[in-house]
Protein 1
Amino acid sequence: MSQSNISDMGEKERLGKLAEYNLTDRDIEEELNNLVTLASKICETPISLINVLGANTQFTKASVGWDITKISREESFCHHTIQDHDIMIVENAIEDERFTESPLVEGEPHIRFYAGVPLKTNEGHNIGAICVIDREERSLTSQQKESLKMISKEVVSRFELIKKNAQLKKADILLQNSSDIQAIIDPDSLKYLEVNNETLSLLSCSKSELDGKRFGERIVDEDLRDEVRTFLSEPKNVEGSFVVRFLSKEEEVVKLKLSFTFYQNRWYMTGRDISRRDKVLQELESEKLFSDNIINNLPGLFCLTDEDGILQRWNKNFKQLVGKSNSEIEDSALFDHFAEDDSELLEIAFKQVLATGEGEAEGNLKTKEQGLIPYALTSFQFTMDDRNYIACIGVDISDLRETQDKLRHTLTNMRIGQELADLGSWRWDLKNNSLLWSPKVYDIYDIDNVAQKPSVELFKERVHPEDISIIDDITNRIKSGEPFQDFEHRLLISDDKVRWVRHSGKIMYEDDGSISHVIGAVQDITSQVKAKQKLEKEKALSDKIINSLPISFFMFDQHGNAIRWNDYFRKATGFNDMQISYMDPLDYFPEKHKERVSQAIERVFEEGKASIQAEFLTSSGELVPYLYSASRFQGDQITYLIGTGQDISEIKEYQNELDQSLKEKEVLLTEIHHRVKNNLAIISGLLQLEAFSAENDHTKNILKNSQMRIQSMATIHEMLYEAENFNDLSFDSFVEQVTSSVREVYNTAGNNDISFDISIDAINLNINQAVPCGLIINELVTNAYKHAFPNHQDGRIEINGNKVGSSITFVIEDNGRGLPDDFSIDEQNSLGFSLVSSLIDQLGATLDIRRDDGAIFIFSFEQENVRGAGSSISGT
């Protein structure tokens, strides 16, 4: 390669590098002014320049004492500077033969002295020079030379910065205008640092509102949200992708594919909405499965070839008969599977199909197990995606060749295959109001003469007179700029026969935004319309049956939306149809029944059926007792609840009579509780006398403990005696009496001052739970009073009782000396703690013991709803 070629290649690379900086047409004087000023002052020259050299021109990007913005490279001193890699100095331009005749030397600015340093990029390309100029002959000191070299490096650094800023700005513009989701995320806080407009739209916030937004807040699936956040928080992860369901600003769930890349301590996220893609794929998969089922269930053979006769698709019958695998059949010619003697006739028939669009032929198929089998083939041509295809349907005519009737029957069955192309296409040019359509449109519109040229007038001739207004309305909307909407209308065929068709289409636009044409498809939907009409009749019949029921009928979906109801239901509720359609199932019940009804509804969807009695709340506020039975019904994609409701007012009246009988028995039980209370009081008094007379402290303590336990049970029986029913004992008053008794029994002269803070919700218990609960509180309060405050220490005991739903929790807390670190109630030998453990089990409760500035005992249990006068303490 010659030296000239090498030089040309170097210059080409240099110009390419210069173009990357985009300096020639950019005003960057402000960024460089301080550098040329500095060079002028250091070198003590009146003129200083920063120049870049293009293919034929020198561009001055910053200057001191120089007004010329560009000159030709032939006149440029810097042109010679960039040929070298070091400083170039011309002390007297008149004596330098390169510049003696230069117009810049002979004329203004009368250059005599010049010193320039190449502006060298990191890759070694000299894209320009920084220079100082004087009108008098002179030289530079070594320090001035080094300073000028250093300034040249700073100029290149500024160029690099300008290029990077331009790249960043370009990237930011691309980021903001991208239709994809793009964001930068902080790996520590997972907060958004930067997002594009598409992401802001998805997050439903402005840039000013972005501060504090944490990634993942709108991901629907909580587990997946945690998984993605965990992935982003793990230092070892650098790349990953997830498919998430995201709640958009329209509160719609969209499916996003998010990809993450970790770079320079930042997560870079890109994403795309794939909801529509997945929906389209599902629809395509469903359509493919549907067509595959049709093809595979066709009687006889089916195969599809391209216009060269190469097989593209085939059904299972074809595969089984030829006895070959899919890979062996693929890309083979259809004629290769028939006898050689039939090849010529089949090729002629194939060409006829290509020429006319359809054709028929006979041939002997080569089968694996049965040899040659004669088949009658019916073929037709269609176009899809600008490619021509031939569909062939074959029927075994081995047994049908003997009679003409059987042959005719076979040929009729073969033509069924032509229905596979039951879709016509059309193109409407708005500018000249012309129409083009596919051959299938002639069939759908029952136009016998296929030679008739498609036109708007011919199209409207077949439209039912009552539906002409539909066509005119759609036409006017399209012309006014509205988007295309699918529409249906009737065709009036011969002998007043009506055919229904559906049109789908898309409007195509010119570059200037004007409408170019409309493309569409038309399909015969007569069978679907008739099926719909049949379904509507069947629904009307079922509605009549449902509305004739002498009980309420209702149907809700899994989201609580009312789907169907009968007249009895509407009359019983007093609400109209519009109100019912917006009401939730629980809206028909008073608050006291809503939880039970909600649980019953859950059982229906979980177990399949459920029954419940509840009072029904009518629109007038009347409560009517009803017996409801419901079961689960599974639709295509939604689960439904269907059920009936029966007014049981008369049954409830009979039940009230039974309740009255029970009340009489409860009176007897009240008297029994009164006698038990009196007997327990006598026993408590005897124990108190024994305790007073006992000299042994241990014995006295046992007697007092027994007295407190007896007194607690007596208090409960006293409450039972005074209660109107035995299932709703007010427990707050019981606790007050227990604490009062403890203080009375154990508070003797010289004892410490122990106060009680009691806070009990309105808690009502039946006797089955009241007795063990009361004894537990008695034991824990007594234990705290006796042991938590040694040496006459003052203290406080708090008793709190809370009820949330059916869950009840009691907390007994003191600020005494607390419990040992290794304390375990199961390892205590005292009767009190043994009794507490036993009662906790009997109550079906949980016990939690804590140590926090004293002792804390927390026990919780579920409230029972045992009704009737026979409620009693059950043994364990």
Protein 2
Amino acid sequence: MNKTILLAGAAFTTICATPAWAEATAAPTPQPEADSAASAETADTTSGLQEIIVTAQARGQSLRTVPVSVSVVDSKAVQSKGLNRIDDIQYFVPNLKLTEVGITTSIFIRGIGSGENQGFEQSVGLYIDGVYYGRAKEVQAPFIDLDRIEVLRGPQSILFGKNSVAGALSITTARPTSTLKAGLSTSYEFNARDFTTEGHISGPLSDRIRVRGALRYRSSQGFDRNLATGRRNPALEEIGGRGTAEIDVTDTLTATAKVEISQFNRKGRTGETFVSDPIATGPFKGLTYGQILFNVFGQPDNVLDEKFDGRRAAIGETSRNRLETYSLGLDWKLGDYTLKSLSAFTRLKYYDNCDCDFTGANIFTAGFDERFDQTSQEIRLISPEYDKFDFILGAYYGHSDQQYADQIVVPNGSLLIGAINAQAPGFGNLIADTQAARTAHIVGDVYSAFAQTNIHVLPSVTVQLGGRYTYDRKRADRSLAILDINGADLSAAQFAAPLVYANLFGITSQNLANLGPVGAFFIGKLGQLPISGKFSTSRFSPDVKVRWEFAPRQMVYATWQRGYKSGGFDFRSNNKSISATLADSFQFRDEQATNYEVGGKFSLGRNVQLNVAAFLTKYKDLQVAIFDGILGYNVGNAAAAKVKGIEFDARWAVTPRLSISAAGAFTDFKFTNYPNGQCYFGQTPTTDLNGDGVADLCSYNGKPAQLVSKFEGTATVDYTMPVFTGYKLNAAADVSYKGRYDASPLYDPKAVQNAYAMVNLRLALSPDSENWQLALFAKNVTNKRPLTYGGAVPLAAGLFGSNSLTGIFAQGRQISVQARMKF
């Protein structure tokens, strides 16, 4: 099926004799060949600044003429700032967050992102060379041989597709060159013992064939100490490669074939307990959760480490991930028109083993296994830029198949067995060496057609009209069974184990149907399995922009646009939560956004560029995943939210040797109608869910989104001076500031991160030719370790009434050296 679609797309383009670059999102137009930022920056003859070229609107355009709030990180910045992972760019791009949330990674723009559920598609679209990557795990893949990263804020519905409701990250990789070139870069960071090397070679095989190959390897021992194993966490090993062939089939038809495969593995994680309050009442009064585990249940003394100190305790944590991409792009010149096609197939496979009680105690473990296949085909026709108008027309098809499984495992020897036996003799033995094994499967198809046109109503005024019609359909099923630890049916002696899982963990299972009236009681309370569902939606997303260049190199714009993110199915809820039935809670609705934006881009004199944007975005049916306080995450649609703010960035070429840049964002995010939020430990409920006169949940009305600061900003000073004869020394310093924010999705006041600033320094020596460079980096000089995620420790509150929080903290000070060579 996948090969058929790929071949059909290529054949369609060839038969129609029309150029195509099928992409799951906006396809970049061909750029001048370059090994670094040359394709993103060109010399500006009227200013001391470099002109930044972006492809946010599927054409190569100057950043200062594009009516979009966009930031660019080119390959030169990636190297000069020592960026090792895609999440490093968040410290240099305001209103962008990439953070681990529990067992995955999420992207947030302007406070909007997707939470922790494998059924989610991402609110921020990730696109690499036009191919859409919609799974959270794909963000963790190593980036290889980049040309630039464009961060587009606000809904990007027309050229980037349905799910880019908050914005998009568009990554463009380096293209093959017509002359032989090669490069090698190696770095070593001393604290985490992080070694990275990357190399590429590019050149012609003939007059019509150009190829490029790139390899990257990274190994890191980690920066936190695991008290249970004596090792550092997280230990990483990444290896990836990409091969690209660019073939001039005819004088008007160019084919680009790419294969990229990455393997990224880790041992251990970064989370650690940082809050554990003594219990106020009951048999464990005065004890913290760790003290209960140590004093009462005889667990190792590492459970007593309950404060943030760069140490944690966990056993057997691993993550094995593989991402494959195969794509074929066709670019056909039809006179002044261009037809592009991009056919792509991606496959993500991973297995995670998590010590998900987040302590060093023997309680339970969890495994997560997923395979996600995606096939896509896009055709777009790009007109020339006429005096009065230009346009882009396109159509897109995508097919996805996701198979997911997870297991909650209670091994023999788990303290849960003794704890349950103490309250109900014999019942603990029922769950020894058992597991709650969940499976889910979802198949989706999306069809869309889109158009965008620029109408030049006056020489200085352009009206841009765009629209995208999308038909989306999905079908899914989910099951959960209580099995023995090897995956076999339960023995007769443990036949009643599902009742313990239901009562203790709130986990429903299909086994309950065989357990008589008691099983029926829990089915009524928690929901019935297995379940299945399907849905289809049709939506039109409009986009209107007006751009006025009121003076040379001075532009203002206004935007109105709507976007949406597809609904889906909840893979990981353990019960029906607040819904009437489990089938009702299984499906969640589309997320919708309406955005209003005004902005301007101004060249001030010869050496200063200022960009500013003000926005107001209203969201309806926001998709959120909330920890249920025990072991599960429940997905729902928050009724409404509103986010408004101002973003700016400025560049100043003070002299040919000295440059200064700054960027910032003021953001005001509020949930406007969200009464059914989970309460944090000890919070008094305010929402009566079922009308019985007893409040069950807590209102989030007026609350900001997780990780949103009122203000954040960054500033950089860069100075280059000649040293010796034929050499130069570059010195750079940058500071990144973030205001106070809530790190917990439950708004626990003990998981608030106060304002902080990170300072980075760099010193680099190179010859004037820049054929090689030696650099010294000091990142996060003041050793700040902000909290990026805070959540409740599973079972601590539910079983023992303890307020215990686990958190993920950013890496501290990093000292590294880097050597680069070009051939």
Protein 3
Amino acid sequence: MAILSSSLVKLARFSRHYAWLGAILAFGLVLLFSRGFWHGVALDIEKHPQIYTVQPQIIAVEINIGVVERAQQVNYQSRPGDRIIDRNDGRWVQRMGQVIGNVVGPAQNLLYGFDQYSAEPLNTEQADRPDAYSLRSADDPAYETPQTPMAVYRKSKPTDMAQVSQGERQWPLRHRLYLEFAQPLDPGKTYELTFPGSNREPLTLHYDPQHHWSEAVHVSQVGFRPDDPVKLGFLSLWMGNGGGLAYGDGLQFSLIAEGDNPQQRSDRPLFTGRAEHRRGPDDLEDPRDRNYTHTDVYTLDFSSFRRPGRYRLCVAGVGCSWPFEIAPDVWKNVFYTVARGFYHQRSGIAFTAPYTDWERPRPFHPEDTPIYQSRVSLMETNMGIGDRNVFEALQAETSTTPVPEAWGGYFDAGDWDRRIQHLEATRLLLELVEISPKITEINLNIPESRNALPDIIDEALWNLSFYKRLQLPNGGIRGGIESTSHPRRGETSWQNTLPTYVYAPDPWSSYLYAGGAAQAAWILRDRDRPQAEEYQRSAIAAMNYAEAQWPQLQASDPPHQVLDARNLAAVELYRLTGDPAWHQIFLATTVFTDPQKPTMAWGKHHQRDAAFVYARLLHSQVDLKVQSQVYNALIREANRTLALSDQTAFGWTKDDPYQPIGWGASFGSPKAIALVRAHVLSGDARYRNGAIFASQFSLGANPDNLTYTTGLGHNSPQHPLILDARVQGKAPPPGIPLYGPLDIVRFPDYWMFNWLRPVTFPDVSQWPTTEAYFDVFLFPAVTEFTVMQSMGPATYTWGYLAATDP
């Protein structure tokens, strides 16, 4: 919950400063009919069908409206009378009274203009009328006479946003219309959908639910290992103003082999089962007394099927899922993709072949971009755990002292700051090495792959070494780097023109670093002794610096985050050195002297990481009573996580059952750290199985049939809030798990909903949270991410599943 609160503060600021940003719809996602109420060209039906079934008597038609030509950087040709308006968010060019874009880059010789948008909107009043459609068939007697649907339902939502001028936005839209007929369609028969009153050519549907995709069938798009004890999909549909669709128990489903081409496909089911009702639209899914799905959800369980291959999951009369694999390397491949996402977040180096196809110049290196020392610490600002506005503080506490060692680390998210909280992700990477050593065998194709260390350790050290370079001679750790505002419109990371500063040192950052450096030294002790000793010295120096500040801090009643960081650093240093002084600090600061304390409590403490370290120490090293209570707290947390997963319709879970769904507490990455740790401690297979189940929603088994990780699966986010991708007009880099849906009921006043409301149907307040993902670039709460909230937990969970056996 502390992380969520921090994100809310950050993203509220983000919304004010990024109001200028626009968004673009990628080419090729358009279905516009030629005359009447639809106009244009058809989608690739193999990739995304324009007409399909969701029930034998309900046909769905998908229409994507809008073509966007993305703004591009071009040479700026100044004209007499051009006026440059210099603001924090950009240098705006006004020509003949009209803003035409922004001059960008260090040389200020480039112009970043506005998007170009074209579309003929859907006439929704006509499209919602049953008499706008007619269905006939030459081989189904029930439709020999053309039939009009009894009802038409619709849901419409934006798929991105185009900024066509300084203050004007246009919205590419995806409409899904559901046509309910009186008679069911007959498998194997062919139907023609016509549009009376329109010159549009008819659409043809060959009703073959064992071969055709349907949005109602959901399954992980990455698949399963043959020995995964949990293999399942889901059946569900919410039809917008038509509400949820009930299918009833016992509907047959099957696994069908999927060949590389239609000639190789098999019609013979290799597995059959019956759909089982899991949750209804009124069933409560968490302690907040909420239902997040608004429809009946059914499980399609094929856990006993183990044969490797490529399959589609098909439901009788409904249709099929995207193809998926059952293969030994499934989790390894998922881990590889998300672990390499960290490489794509690196600052201070260029991205080049052979390490990536997503090439980029070197950003934020002091040799290219001046970086100066600030007098304000991260701890004091609202980017850390303080109250000072970070941008105002940086502008007030400037200096001209350059910091040549200030390069590296990870970009925080879609923007470019670096902060000590990123060590949470580094801790998870290093912990993964501790609990699943086989993970070290996976080559991540990073620049360090040629050295003797495993790649996952190298990736962790990339981030940790950044803060080590920021360590001062007195041991103090400077908590990161930030500019004086959010990025300027139209600039890429390597074109930044905002003043940029290194934070001053503080004890909170120093404690966090000390814990991370001690953990690294522990892991390196048998792999690279000189580097282990170097990190040990660095960790102790940081701890000593922070401890020197502790008496003054203690007198001021510091935030619990400082106490938690001190507790974690102490247990890591005790594990590393065996020095009882560190043990005493841990015992003095732990909450687990109370047997009832949870691992974390909103606004009070967050000691789950320290607990997991202490739980694994030898009995001879610990206070046995405290260790027993630590173990019990970790198991209670995991059991609570399992219980919530069992309650939710799609098996997703949360770190805290009372957390609202949004930002780092949403569905984009699995919330399974507690389950992994409980499996390590107890060996109980329920916890590892629970981690698999909790991962399904994030990997595509959801109503949008979308993985929330870029470049993963058949259908992944196309418009994440990644500024470098957006400004360049490139597809996003792969391996970035986004936040995912935002609970509209809990956050009704979030600013983006005011923009979405006029172009979304039904009203955004009526959408189920499980479908409240809008693939809109400028939606920080949904399409952004952070290194520690999204990337760390996903890589940790899927890495553990890749490197361990049931």
